[in-house]
Specification:
Strand order of the largest sheet: 1-2
Order of helices and strands: HEEHHHHHHH
Organism: Streptomyces spongiae
Radius of gyration: 22 Å
Protein name: ALF repeat-containing protein
Distance between the termini: 58 Å
Number of strands: 2
Structural class: mainly alpha
Oligomer: single chain
Helix content: 55-70%
Number of helices: 8
InterPro entries: DUF312_ALF
Signal peptide: 1-27
Keywords: Signal
Number of domains: 2
Length: 205
């Protein structure tokens, strides 16, 4: 498949590592402004949408811009940054290789680190541990990224529902807290997490 700059920038946003998700709190989203690309190339004397230029035909300047965008992404992990800088210090072919192949593999390594951190968190519940291990066992860049972008959030919600049900089942739980917990069970993954981290203490506070 011939990657274009537009596809590459979209991929850069989609593949941004979710290291911040390693904390118990769930991130609300990881949208990147780099997905909006409207620049055009006029190097040949005519205006050509940059998005239509395949990576293997992009001039050196455009290759550097694409890699610079990856480096500017605050979510880029250590391996991605190291490989991106090495590509910039190398030849044009080194830059093309990074954008077409190296970036995906470097991102996968950073994702493995993020997942191992989640597994080492003593607060990670059974659902999170189960899904994280599945992603590591499958061990493809796509499975690792899918866990960090979607699977972790859903597995955390599963664990949070279990924790809230335990609160409801506890005979020492006050009526007010039990009512709030039942209401939280109907909420989103973010609302479940908020209840466990903040809401339950506000009720009994």
């Amino acid at each position: 498949m011939r990657l274009t700059r537009g596809a590459l920038i979209v991929a850069a946003a989609a593949l941004a590592p979710a290291l911040l998700l390693a904390s118990p709190a769930l991130a609300a989203g990881t949208a990147s402004s780099s997905t909006a690309v409207t620049a055009t190339s006029v190097t040949d004397g005519s205006a050509t949408p940059v998005d239509e230029i395949p990576v293997d035909e992009m001039p050196e300047e455009e290759l550097r811009i694409a890699i610079a965008r990856i480096l500017a992404d605050p979510d880029s992990g250590r391996r991605v940054i190291r490989e991106a800088n090495a590509a910039l210090d190398g030849t044009v072919e080194d830059m093309r290789h990074f954008l077409e192949t190296g970036y995906r593999l470097a991102q996968a390594e950073d994702d493995r680190v993020a997942i191992v951190r989640i597994l080492s968190d003593p607060d990670s519940g059974r659902g999170v541990v189960r899904e994280a291990n599945k992603a590591l066992d499958t061990n493809t860049p796509e499975s690792l990224r899918a866990f960090l972008e979607t699977g972790y959030r859903l597995a955390q919600a599963e664990d949070d529902r279990v924790a809230i049900v335990r609160i409801i089942s506890n005979p020492n739980t006050s009526d007010a807290l039990r009512a709030a917990a039942r209401e939280a069970l109907d909420g989103t993954p973010e609302e479940l997490r908020y209840f466990l981290e903040v809401g339950q203490y506000e009720v009994d506070g």
